Amino acid sequence: MLPRTIALVDDDPEYSEFLAQHLRGRGVEVQLYADSSDLLAAGSPYLYEFYVVDLMLPGVDGVELIRILRKRTDAGVLVVSGRLGAEVFADVVNAGADMYLMKPVTFEQVELAVRAVHRRIVTTAKTATAWKVDAVRSTLTTPDGQVVDLNATDLSLMQCFLEAGGAVVARDLLSERLGIAAAGDSANNLHATIYRLRRRIERATPLAVPLQSQQRVGYVFKAPLVSA
Amino acid sequence: MPTEANPAFGADDGWHRPDRLSQLFSATPLMTAYVDEARVVRMASRAWCEWFASTVAEAIGKDYASTVGAGRFERHRRHLELAQRGVEISFEDELADGLGTTRWCRVHLAPADSAADAAAPCGVMIVMIEFTGERVRSELIVRQREQLFEQLREQQRSEQVQAELEKTRTLLDWRTTMLTERNEMLHLLSHEIRQPLNNASAAMQATMKAIEDLHIAESTPASSALARAENVLGQVIGTLDNTLAAGTILAFGEAALETSDTDLPVLIRLVLADIAADARHRIVLQFGTDTRTVRLHPTLMRLTLRNLLNNALAYSPGDSPIHLKVSELEDPLAIVIDVVDSGSGIPDELRPRLFEKGARGANSRMRSGAGLGLFIAHSVMKMHRGSIEALPNAPQGTIVRVTLPQGLAD
């Protein structure tokens, strides 16, 4: 699944031109911006369905651009950059990018990443059908109708996300509510519990599971979630 | 002792009677004494007697040796014998009091009877002058001089240390400059070289696509030449990626590692697209789990898996399949990825340093590469708190197994 429109923000004209050509060949409407300020100054900079962004840009720096975009849009953001360094990846993820691809990449790889990110967004955050938590039966129903059994801990977890209404739940709060360790190497710590629950859901449905971690902060359920 | 009247004493000879002389002698504050030719103390001052812890009454008429003590006499004997033979002499003597301090005095011995027969011993006049104060002062001065010298030496030493430090600092500055230059060069490589390579690769892809779209049968040689060129480019890019990763990301160590929730099937498809197009078909993907979201560092894992696959492709027969198997562990929670080949296996001599920088197999079909692939894979797995191992694959070949722990705190 490809988005209908993509803003491609990259100051390397050859690369952008070739990539745009490739994506247009797939039926995507691509607008090129060599300078991030050009995008921000454009008529409707936040209406694209997808953004492919380089980090080293004239105008507003790539990481900053992602941060700005994230304030206004839930569209997919893919970073394709040659920038190296340990801090880069963390910066990009913390700023709100959905995926980071290190150059050099082929157009197939960019296309593949765009498809994967876009599909995840469309099937989670932008889905019309909500995920349903049934406290009585202790189940979670996926938008495609699969029913996942929840144990007591999983149910408390899902209730936390229900109450949060799409906001990030701090991991300290989660571990307190669940009565388990927030960290440590215990097999039953919060991270292991979430990993197991997500895995259980992934076994039941091919849909992307909107249970996402926010580095060092907590977890968020990034999709409509209702109580059945 | 002369007994007849001496005209020098005058008419009144009462004042120089021996007892009067002895009394006068003993009253002097000087330390002085007279011993006769037989070394018997004939006259002695109180001060002299006190030096030897004796009294005038005790000392007079006694042997010199018994007054000064046997040990001390041994030290005096040589000097006394010389003086008794007419030589005026002086020497130093010391006296330890009971409190552990020492007093010093200079002992002057003067032959008393110059007229005596040179062969026969004569009496000796003894005068002792204490110089303990002087001696202590001079010792103090010597000590102070030594202390001053020591301070001077200390200062010189610290100046030397300072100079050494200065040298080390200069070296460190130089090293920092070199490291900065090295990093700048790595960044130059990473951006100024890889980007154009990327563009060249893009141009080739576009050309191939254009040729393909023409649907001309004669274009096959051109297409395959382009495909080969792109493979070469891919190898150069791969080597550059490894070199840069070894020089930058890995140099920061585990502390810098940031993992994220990653879709493993997507990551693996990205990795497969990194593999040369004409070798890709040899890779057989086997998913033994439905788990898709895995916590890892996607850029480093992409590089790691690419390295493992390229190794397997290079070290096994040209048409043999390479299996990429994904499975999972329950306790402890982990994702396991096996890269299985049916090559000739890892030579024993390579095994101990398999994951070290520069380790390369002799039977590689791929001539490029700096032996960084497994080193990077090993470093990346360490950063993930995971593991990598090379196991034998029966009946032949190798299984390289990476284990990525899951459910860890970040």
Explain the overall architecture.
The complex is a heterodimer of chains A (228) and B (410). The radius of gyration of chain A is 19 Å and the shape is elongated. Chain A folds into 2 domains: 5-128, Rossmann fold (3-Layer(aba) Sandwich); 131-227, Arc Repressor Mutant, subunit A (Orthogonal Bundle), CATH 1.10.10.10. Chain A is built from 8 helices and 12 strands. Chain A has 228 residues and is of the alpha/beta class. In chain B, helix 6 (132-214) packs antiparallel against helix 7 (220-247). In chain B, a hairpin with a 5-residue loop joins strand 11 and strand 12 (398-405). Chain B starts with 17 loop residues before the first helix and ends in a 5-residue tail after the last strand. The longest helix of chain B has 83 residues, at 132-214. In chain B, the strands form 3 sheets. In chain B, strands 2-1-5-4-3 form a 5-stranded antiparallel sheet. Among the domains of chain B are: 18-130, PAS domain (Beta-Lactamase); 257-410, 2-Layer Sandwich (Heat Shock Protein 90), CATH 3.30.565. The chains are: A alpha/beta (228), B alpha+beta (410). Chains A and B meet through helix 1, helix 4, strand 5, helix 5 and helix 8 of A and helix 6, helix 7, strand 6, helix 8 and helix 9 of B.
